[in-house]
Each structure stands twice: as structure tokens, then as C-alpha cells.
Amino acid sequence: MPQFFANKKLIVLLVGIIFLVAIISYTLSNRTNPSFAEGAVKDTVGFGQGIMAKPANFISGILDDIDALLSTYEENKRLKAQLDDFALVRVQLDEVKMENERLAALIDKEESLLQYDPVYATVIARNPDQWEEKIIVNKGARQGIEKNMAVMTADGLIGKVVVVTPSTAEIELLFSNNPNYRISAKAKGDKDVFGLIEGFDAERSEMLMKRIDSSFKVEPGQKVVSSGLGGIFPQGLLIGEITEIGTDDYGLTQMAYVKPAANFALLDQVVIAKRKMTQINGSDGDGSMNDLTHPEEAEGEAQ
Amino acid sequence: MIQRIAVVAVALLLFLIEPNFAFLSPLTFDQTLYYFVPRFLVVFLIFLATYQSKKRAMYIGLFFGILYDIFYVDVIGLYAFLYPGAIFLASTIMGYIKPNMMVTATIALVIVTLLETAIYGFYSFISITDMPWQLFVQERLLPTLAMNFLFIILTAIIFVYLINAKLVRNEMNTV
What we know:
The structure holds two protein chains of two kinds.
Chain A: H1 2-6, H2 8-29, H3 36-70, H4 72-106, E1 116-126, E2 134-137, E3 150-152, E4 157-164, E5 169-173, E6 183-187, E7 193-201, E8 206-213, E9 223-226, E10 238-247, E11 253-260, E12 269-275, H5 289-293, H6 295-302
Chain B: H1 2-23, E1 27-29, E2 32-34, H2 40-51, H3 54-73, H4 78-96, H5 101-125, H6 133-163, H7 165-174
Antiparallel strand pairs in B: 1-2
Helix pairs in contact in B: 1-2, 2-3, 2-4, 2-5, 2-6, 3-4, 4-5, 5-6, 6-7
């Protein structure tokens, strides 16, 4: 034993390992609220990263352009076919919008779940180890970003904000397998069918939409959008399309595979949606197990 | 002195450049996503440990490990432990063999493999990923090794020249 204590290096190593394990387990359990020092480091590195990301964004922009150029001919053909429809739909939409405004004014309804303020942000870094699907953008608390806001690209929803510092924000993508990551969604059909997006099937590269009431009928091909009932996301952000229906773990509810609408490679510009309606912390929010057992908050999901 | 600053500057540059390569990943071939994980900083630090000072390489590794943890991972202590650990392991192996560029490059790849596996183990343990081992090797480990191998080929001579110019001349004479 005395010999053991005489080996100073070994002692230092052991103490170091114990210290590290302690820090790891502490930070693992308390991951979402960065301390002041963490925030400062994040902002500093974020500043450097923002400068370094410019050339990368430029290159990925060029790659996008080339990609767009290559598919121009086919896209043009397809779009021409849609153009005739478009004019018609446009007129109808205007009509419906006007009517909607008139009716909303009639009942003094000023805000709806659909409305949001977009905040445009540039991606400055993506975790190089790519295990947790996270990206970091150059807008933070100073620009009014808050935790759990919805993040999307032009194609559709890509994730939500998980950590905010004064000038950066961290976004966890839909790829996540984090069990506390849920999004309240609905499948568009003749009648909306509600469910929760939770989990990701890595082998199929598709998301899982769970807890769909088995008395409702869902079909492959239906579009899935955010329902806005989770408390934080605005309503109607496109998430993806259903590809297959299955049964949930306990056979009580249905589950659907959802193919994401957005493209997750080469993300450089994103839009963070700040919803206008009051925000509450529901299933899009902290997503702790407790929240879901609170009936008044989970009401929307259960229906 | 200038050389010391240059070494730290290169380390900083590599640290900042790594995520830019992560932008381009994952790439899709045949419906499968392939992940290319840049581990340039570790590779550089292994070269530094071999050709200059093990202690300094470990300190730099610790510093950037902590930065990495705070900025990307939010689990403080993971990379702060793995970076110096990887460098320590590499230079211990180097102690038994006479290092030259080829040997260092090979060892660096072995260390990158171990590092990736250790991180895979950690993330499986805290159940952030449920990727099976087979898929991990196919979709992550092999592309990652290929990418870092390419990186080593392109930069090994620059690294060694930067760290210790005299050695390069010696080595060139022996080849």
C-alpha cells in the first residue's frame, strides 16, 4: 500500500479520472442551461467560427447552385405543368384569405397559431463528430431567440432550438434519437390526425410519428405538419410525408414512418420561427416526462 | 518562439476548420448516409507529440478538448479527456519504435480509429445513438478513416516541416 501512494503519477491520474467522471455526469444531467462561463466561451468560439464559416457557406452555396443548374431542365418542365394550376389556386387563395380576414375581424380574433415572425440565421458550425445532430447558428438571445423555437428551411421543418447563448443558438435536428425530443404534429387529410414526432429510424432515415389514435385512418402519402398544439411551434410547418403505417410499441396506438421534407445536408441558411401566439411549455417544450402526464398540457396530443 | 506560435496557430486553425468539413457531411450514396468526421487536430497533435514535445501536445489537446466540449458537445470532460489520452497513447507507442513519417501516419490512423470507437461507445452508453456496430463501421468509421488518411497525405510534410524543419531534411535523405 505505501508503495501505491508513493507513485505520484498514478494518484494524479486517478484523481483526474474521478474529477472528469464527476464533471461529465454533472454536465450530462444539467445540459440545457449554459452557465455564464460556458456562454462566454460559446460566444467567443462562435465569433471565430462565424468568420471561418463564410468560405464554407460560400462553397456550399456554389454546390447548391450547381445542383440547381443540373436539374433545371426537368424542373422547368414540371413547373410549366404546374403553372396553369397555380394561377387558379392563387385566385382562390386570395379569395379565401380575404374571407378569412373578414371572418377573423368579425369575431375579434387577432392572432392565430399559424402566424410567426421569421428570424433568418446563418449556420456557423456543425458538430464535427456528428453524433448528436446539432448545428450552431449566429443568432441568439439578443435577437429574441428562445429555447424550443421551431427551425426550418424553405423545404420544411428541420429541428428546434435547444441551447441559447447571447449571440449563438444550438439547434437539434429532427434526426435526433433523444427520447425527450418530441414535436406535436398532425397528418393532413380529410380530417386532421394528431400524433407526436418522436425518434428517428437510422436504417430507413425516416422519423417516427407515434401515438396516433388507432380509430383514425392514416395513409401513406399524407403530408405531416406541425400542429401548434405543443405550445411553442407555430401551426402548419411542413415536416414530411408518411411512407408506412405500423403499430406502436404496445399495440394501442398507430405509428407512422415520416420521410422528412427538408434536406439536411449542406444546411447553411435557416429560419427560426417565433410564434406570435402566446407560448406555453408543452410537448414541443421541455418535453420532460412530467409535462406529458399533466392532463391540461397534454390535452391536445391525446385527442 | 515564432515556431511555437505557429504551432498553436495551426492548432487553432484546424480546430476552426473542422466543422466546415462537417458541413459537407453526411454524403448520400445509394440511399445510405456516409459520415466523414474530421479529426485533423488530433492528427496534428500526434505529429507534434512525435516530432517535438509530448507534454505540449497534451496541453494543447486538453485546451482544445475543453473548447470542443463546451462549444459542441455540452458534456464537459469527454473530449477534454479523450484528446490528451489519445496523444498520450500515441506517444507511448512511439516510444517503442523509431518514428518516421509513414509510421506516425499509420499510428495516427490507429488512434483515430480508437478515438471514434471510444466516442461511439460513450454515446451508445448514454443512449444518444442506437446505431449497431456493423453500421458504425460501414457508415462512419471507414469514411472517417479515408478522409483523415487523405488529410494526412496532403499535410504530413507541412506539419513535420513546421514542427521541426531539420528532421524533414534528415528523413528526405534517408528515403
